[in-house]
Amino acid sequence: NTDEPEINAWVGLLQEKIKDVNEDTxxxxxxxxxxxxxxxxxxxxxxxxxxGCCFVAGWFKLNEGILREEGEEVVEIxxxxxxxRINFSKVKTHxxxxxxxxxxxxxYVLLSNVKIFKEKLEAKTLILKNKEHFNEVSEIPExxxxxx
Length: 148
Description:
Distance between the termini: 30 Å
Radius of gyration: 15 Å
Strand content: 5-15%
Shape: globular
Structural class: alpha/beta
Helix content: 40-55%
Order of helices and strands: HEHEHHHEHEH
Number of strands: 4
């Protein structure tokens, strides 16, 4: 349900579909899907590790002005994702190779998120030019390189 994403439903779907992970498992997420992956990792059992995670237009903070322009309903949908904290220490016990990719003109994702990904996950970060929210981008070579 991409129009009204809910944390429990999205994370629950990953838990239902992905029965086992190992160091050959890699995740690629976009926008709210990035948080879904982090919350999935947060809930893994103690000794499980994945190979890496690549996040495209991931966020913890959003441009509230743009959200409000889209309507109060959009603000309400985003609220649980913004307000429910992630235990980054726990996430890092399951993965230690993160790449976060941003666009310098994303209308939704504030570039202050770059610092959060660096500080909380020790993620490598890239800021690409003029990709907006990556909705119209069909290929991101940096993602393919990360997965190799």
